[in-house]
Specification:
Elements: H1 4-19, H2 30-37, H3 39-42, H4 65-74, H5 90-108, E1 121-125, E2 130-140, E3 143-148, E4 154-158, E5 162-167, E6 170-171, E7 190-195, H6 199-202, E8 205-212, E9 219-229, E10 232-241, E11 258-260, E12 266-270, E13 288-292, E14 314-317, E15 322-327, E16 334-338, E17 345-350, E18 385-387, E19 393-398, E20 411-415, E21 420-427, E22 430-438, E23 443-449, E24 455-460, E25 463-470
Antiparallel strand pairs: 1-2, 2-25, 3-4, 4-5, 5-6, 7-8, 8-9, 9-10, 11-12, 12-13, 13-14, 15-16, 16-17, 17-18, 19-20, 20-21, 21-22, 23-24, 24-25
Helix pairs in contact: 2-5
Amino acid sequence: MPTLSLRRTLLCLFALTNSLPAAEMAPREPARLSTEFCVGCHGINLVGGAAPNLLDSIWKNGGDDDSILRSIREGAPAAGMPPFGAALTEGEMRGLLGYIRRQSRAFALGAIPPAGPAPSSVAVKSEKQAFRVETFAGPLDTPWGIVFLPDGKMLVSDRIGEIRLIEKGVLQPAPIRNTPKTFVRQDGGYLDLIAHPDYAKNGWLYLAYVELGENRYTSMTRIVRGKIRDGAWVEQQDIFQADQKFYFNDTSHYGCRFLFDRTGHLFFTFGERGKAIGAQDLSSPLGKIHRVFDDGRIPPDNPFVGRPGACESIWCYGNRHVQGLQFHPVTGKLWATEHGPRGGDELNRIEPGRNYGWPTISDGLAQKEEKIEGTERAGMESPIAWWSPSVAPAAIEFYTGDRFPNWKNNLFIACLVGRQLKRIETDGDKVVHQEIVFSEMGRVRDVVTGPDGLIYLAMNNPGRIARLVPDAPRPADIPSLPPDPAPPPLPPMPTLPPLKK
């Protein structure tokens, strides 16, 4: 993590650059603009990610030059695309248009491959472990959450609005029936899925999904629990449903990641839904991490219980868009990953009642109506680590299995940008080392340790469940063996009489 002085220097350089009139700035290279503004949603080669392929000549809002420039300049708010007119000069927008046209021609000629099926197995040698990335099950669309059941089966929530069953590595052909109807657009759809800690006895599963509001075009995350019986979702109960005033005409930052603690409390996350200031409003559930009992009741020891006007499920606030939650296996403390604006993605240590600063402090650059005032402020928590450019961190997992002994207690972070898996070594509350374990194999959204000790990943583009399987240990990891003992001396050869002729 850069030192405070280096961070301040970088921010000063950013501020200086942003303070120059557009006419005085040298136009930035189109390829650089594509990396900064486009690949996070449209994929590393612009052939599709969370947003559609930009190179296949299929345009929803017109494919002529003026229409594409208008889309870049004004965005498409209904589809979740922000406007870039304030961030780019007219010359840069035209340069970006030309770049997209050139890449489209290369795509048409086959020089840029489409987002196709993943290889069944890829060998990787990382710093401490040789392994293979294997496709375990698929195809899926956009798998979001992985759940292992006590009988060895796996459930997966797919953002398109399905819960899928995987049995013995085989994706069953039909999704679970009778699951809730969802609103699928940009970040919306089915989100996380988790089993109750006592699932073997009670059968409860918890699902987060996006639903439409009472007012036209509005939507918000809803949390329910239910059971699966004979292939169908049954006995649904509400765990959390926000007031209709928090259903917005915006399709970004819904959340939602789940986590149970050892005493059966359910933690869940809500993004600030593109309304940054709401993260500081304790009367709003948005931009927060929440904690409830397993049936949705409010624990009396939550930090804002009894505060007039406060949403009493709030555990902490000032969060932009948390998509990873996990307890440290040694310290027991809660860790979280959070999406920043343009850069400034965060890894945080979460404490009850604390303010994590959004949108007042951030190491990223403001966009839309956001007004970032600096990187730190008294009474607000700064991140343990941050990343710029963005890596779009999703789920996290502290590895506690025995199949990868060199990774014991390391933190793994699923990343959407760069299609990568990060490995983090920690010392108490400090990050002491980072490694990109692999990259460019698909957008990684969930990372889970299986009951077999292997690491399982939910990935899209292409959509599948993959797993990491250890290869034979590298030479440096093979312990040296003592030399074989010297063999006993041979007895002397007997003297033979000379041969007779």
